[in-house]
Recover the amino acids of this structure.
């Protein structure tokens, strides 16, 4: 309708100049003219611009019938008022032109004032100013109209300057002057002028006028003087004016005093003042926090009772309220039931969905908005770009970007920053850089976002370059940007860069807790454990993240014992661990096979009511399996067996595999396929390892081939390692070597290591020499590889080659990792190394071990298998070396400290040798104790003289 009104063209002709030679008193106004004038007034009151234009034009059809003394000021006045009401600028200009050609404006203060007010309300402030400047005489109404025009146009300083000119000219003020000027004071924060005007209002006797009081309350609140606003409010004796209450509620709400605003709303209700649209909107705006959810819902109920729910402004406020508290279901219901929606309605809904994570719904609603012919604005673009980024939908993101460019919205700083973030999350670094380069205005957010985008997309070197540019350009560097740069350093694993950033932080004197936590985390990721611990000690107010960072650092760097000790300190500090630290601790427990600690963490999760699903559930399944309690893993898995989490199924397949239950692993894999879950590379890796530990050759080859033929998954080098290990240990060395030769990528050290191990077991010197040569060529810095090569030479009594390999180790300053075993006793982890005497009960342990060995020799027929000792020493020395292997010391300590009937659980960092395997079988039989030993590859469950591995490991 508004468009139709604006486009309407008046078909009116200029009125001839009045015949001044006839005295007006002798003229009679034709009845038809007076009737039309009254009709014009009625039509104008109804807001019908087209009909009013037609009536107005009809007054000039027959010029001869218009009496000379007939004054048309009233007709012009009602038409200017109508144009102002409907804000129709084009018709307004035509009325003005008609006045000029009619000659009625020359000395008419009344009509000129009407024109000033009309142009002001139509938004043509400059036109209003031109009329105002040409007026030789002005009234208070004229000055008020011009001041109001500047206020409506948002030029508050010009309004205040005009007010001062008005004072200088000695123009008297009235009650309508004060609200306009006070609004300008509030908008500019000019409290001194506001106070001055307050004094003038008192002087002129207007301080008790309702709309003046409301303007004063609003001015004081916007100038930050809430106390002044409240004192003024309290001086009003009769507070039955809803506008006054609205002013006070808005004052509190606008200054962030939500509780006070809602208290004022309740007081208003208790005094029996009925609220209106503005009341509900102001009160709902105050319900910003979750704690006000109930009160907001009560306001919603009041809206429904009052019938104001049809008002688009109230509906928009309700949408914003429910979006703020995250209740998008209620917001959607309100939106769907709105009879009328404006830009604010659509944008509020789009923003609410985006901020509450309903990104797919954002795109769907945006499509509906376009179909409803909504022209997206800056707010719409921000919401859709955010959703596209979170969804990683680059195509939609580019379309939004194109729209922003086409309509000139990309020049907006906030839009530009959101586009940067969108491209970053869509992993499109090139487009992100282009957006950044095209931005005319950049702020700290822009630079931080583009640096973060590069760091998060593994363009860490570029992130560091941009950071240096920001430094040299004198840009602001804040803790958030430094945290992102630390992320880039972590991606590069660059110890020197981390230290440089740390030094920069110290020089700048930044003591931000989040930054300190990041330093602990990044030092840990880079393997600089002492530095991480040092930063941790310097943190005065440690939070959960601080403790979690160092615990994770210890866990990831193989210091599980230190991680568990730190966890105990954390509990004593009174802090409860969060989700992240518990997952990290479960990883530490897994590396130690500490079942008791694992069960404690599981119990903690249950007591705290933490939901056991996702990564927590997977970690628990893996922990129980890695601690030798396969039954507990099965119980957990079966309680969630209907889960569609592939990681959970993979964890359980791996659990069966490391315990040697290859057939069970295959059965579970087939059940997973029937449940329409598609395996990934990790699933197949767990399955092939299960086949390898159980010696299932045909099954292993079958599933290896199915990866590509059935699931189009190209095998990783790790899959070849499993297959080579499976075939090699079954003495299918030729076939294993053929698989190595057919690899699509160059065989890595792990593949040659698996082949070499099999060659040692089956004494294949020729192929072993080839594998040894390739292994040392590919990974000359790994001491374990030298030990393996040395062992294969020693097993064939090639002592010169053994000396040569050991000499190379010495030249490269490499040392063999000693055999080490751990066991848990007395709520403590006890570590033992071969021939170790550092334990406090060392004498008792060796005495017990001698007793055990003698019993096995006399009652079990134990004879040391010295072939397991790959050293060029005498037979008796070889036997002596075997007797002090680390797992035997742990077994002796276990028999000393644990109760009869309880299993002894031991973790070893190397594979169990053949002699120790036989030793454990006899201990389980003669001492009637179950031994659960986890070596570097798998679990061995020794019961009644036999092992679960079936002597295949």
């Amino acid at each position: 309708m508004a468009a139709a009104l604006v486009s309407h063209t008046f078909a009116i002709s200029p009125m001839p100049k009045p015949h001044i030679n006839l005295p007006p008193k002798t003229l009679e106004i034709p009845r038809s003219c007076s009737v039309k004038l009254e009709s014009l007034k009625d039509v104008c009151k109804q807001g019908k611009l087209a009909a009013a234009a037609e009536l107005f034009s009809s007054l000039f059809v027959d010029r001869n019938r218009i009496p000379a003394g007939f004054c048309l000021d009233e007709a012009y006045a009602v038409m200017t008022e109508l144009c102002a009401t409907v804000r129709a600028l084009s018709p307004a200009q035509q009325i003005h032109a008609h006045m000029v050609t009619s000659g009625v404006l020359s000395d008419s203060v009344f009509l000129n004032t009407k024109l000033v007010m009309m142009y002001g309300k139509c938004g043509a402030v400059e036109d209003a100013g031109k009329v105002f400047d040409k007026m030789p005489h002005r009234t208070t109404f004229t000055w008020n109209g011009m001041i109001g025009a500047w206020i409506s146009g948002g030029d508050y300083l010009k309004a205040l300057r005009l007010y001062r000119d008005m004072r200088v000219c000695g123009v008297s003020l009235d009650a309508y002057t004060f609200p306009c000027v006070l609004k300008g004071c509030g908008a500019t924060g000019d409290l001194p002028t506001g106070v001055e005007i307050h004094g003038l209002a008192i002087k002129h006797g207007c301080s008790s006028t309702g709309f003046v009081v409301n303007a004063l309350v609003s001015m004081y609140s916007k100038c930050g003087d809430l106390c002044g606003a409240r004192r003024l409010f309290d001086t009003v004796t009769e507070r039955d004016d809803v506008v006054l209450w609205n002013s006070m509620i808005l004052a509190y709400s606008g200054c962030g005093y939500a509780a006070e605003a809602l208290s004022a709303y309740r007081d208003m209700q208790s005094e029996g003042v009925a609220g209106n649209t503005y009341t509900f909107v102001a009160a709902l705006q105050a319900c910003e926090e979750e704690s006000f959810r109930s009160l907001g819902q009560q306001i919603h109920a009041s809206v429904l009772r009052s019938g104001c729910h049809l008002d688009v402004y109230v509906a928009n406020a309700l949408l914003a309220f429910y979006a703020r508290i995250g209740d998008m279901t209620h917001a959607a219901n309100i939106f769907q039931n709105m009879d009328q929606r404006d830009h604010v309605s659509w944008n509020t809904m789009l923003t609410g969905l985006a901020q509450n994570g309903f990104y797919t719904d954002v795109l769907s609603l945006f499509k509906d908005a376009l179909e409803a012919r909504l022209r997206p604005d800056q707010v719409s673009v921000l919401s859709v770009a955010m959703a596209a980024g979170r969804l990683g939908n680059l195509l939609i993101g580019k379309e939004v970007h194109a729209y922003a460019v086409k309509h000139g919205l990309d020049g907006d700083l906030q839009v530009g920053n959101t586009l940067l973030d969108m491209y970053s999350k869509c992993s499109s670094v090139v487009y992100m850089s282009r957006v950044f380069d095209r931005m005319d205005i950049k702020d700290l957010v822009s630079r931080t976002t583009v640096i973060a985008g590069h760091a998060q997309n593994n363009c860490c070197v570029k992130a560091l370059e941009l950071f240096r540019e920001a430094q040299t350009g004198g840009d602001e560097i804040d803790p958030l940007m430094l945290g992102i740069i630390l992320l880039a350093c972590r991606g590069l694993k660059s110890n020197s860069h981390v230290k440089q950033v740390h030094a920069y932080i110290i020089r700048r004197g930044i003591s931000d807790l989040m930054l300190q936590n990041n330093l602990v985390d990044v030092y840990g990721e880079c393997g600089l454990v002492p530095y991480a611990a040092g930063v941790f000690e310097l943190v005065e107010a440690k939070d959960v993240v601080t403790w979690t960072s160092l615990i994770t650092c210890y866990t990831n760097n193989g210091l599980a014992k230190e991680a568990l000790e730190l966890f105990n300190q954390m509990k004593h500090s009174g802090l409860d661990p969060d989700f992240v630290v518990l997952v990290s601790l479960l990883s530490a427990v897994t590396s130690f096979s500490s079942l008791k600690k694992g069960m404690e963490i599981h119990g903690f999760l249950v007591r705290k009511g933490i939901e056991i699903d996702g990564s927590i559930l997977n970690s628990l399944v893996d922990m129980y399996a890695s601690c030798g309690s396969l039954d507990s893993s099965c119980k957990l898995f079966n309680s969630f067996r209907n889960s569609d989490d592939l990681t959970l199924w993979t964890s359980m397949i791996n659990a069966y595999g490391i315990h040697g239950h290859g057939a069970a692993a295959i059965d579970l894999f087939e059940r997973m396929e029937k449940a329409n879950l598609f395996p990934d590379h990790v699933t197949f890796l767990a399955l092939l390892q299960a086949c390898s530990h159980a010696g299932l050759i045909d099954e292993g080859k079958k599933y290896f081939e199915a990866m590509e033929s059935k699931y189009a998954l190209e095998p990783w080098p790790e899959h070849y390692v499993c297959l080579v290990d499976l075939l090699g240990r079954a003495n299918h060395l030729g076939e294993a070597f053929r698989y190595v030769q057919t690899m699509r990528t160059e065989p890595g050290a792990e593949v040659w290591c698996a082949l070499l191990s099999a060659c040692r077991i089956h004494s294949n010197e020729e192929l072993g020499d080839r594998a040894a040569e390739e292994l040392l060529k590919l990974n000359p810095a790994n001491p374990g590889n030298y030990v393996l090569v040395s062992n294969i030479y020693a097993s064939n009594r090639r002592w010169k080659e053994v000396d040569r390999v050991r000499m190379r180790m010495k030249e490269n300053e490499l040392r063999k990792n000693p055999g080490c075993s751990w066991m848990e006793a007395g709520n403590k982890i006890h570590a033992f190394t071969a021939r170790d005497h550092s334990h406090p009960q060392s004498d008792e342990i060796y005495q017990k071990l001698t007793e055990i060995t003698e019993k096995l020799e006399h009652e079990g027929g134990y004879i040391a298998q010295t072939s397991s000792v790959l050293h060029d020493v005498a037979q008796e020395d070889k036997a002596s070396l075997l007797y002090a292997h680390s797992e035997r010391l742990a077994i002796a300590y276990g028999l000393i400290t644990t109760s009869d009937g309880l299993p002894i659980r031991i973790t070893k960092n190397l594979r169990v040798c053949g002699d120790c395997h036989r030793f454990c079988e006899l201990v389980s039989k003669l001492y009637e104790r179950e031994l659960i030993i986890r070596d570097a590859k798998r679990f061995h469950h020794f019961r009644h003289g036999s092992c679960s591995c079936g002597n295949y490991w």
Summary: The CA atoms of residues 333 and 812 lie 72 Å apart. Residues 644-711 form one domain.
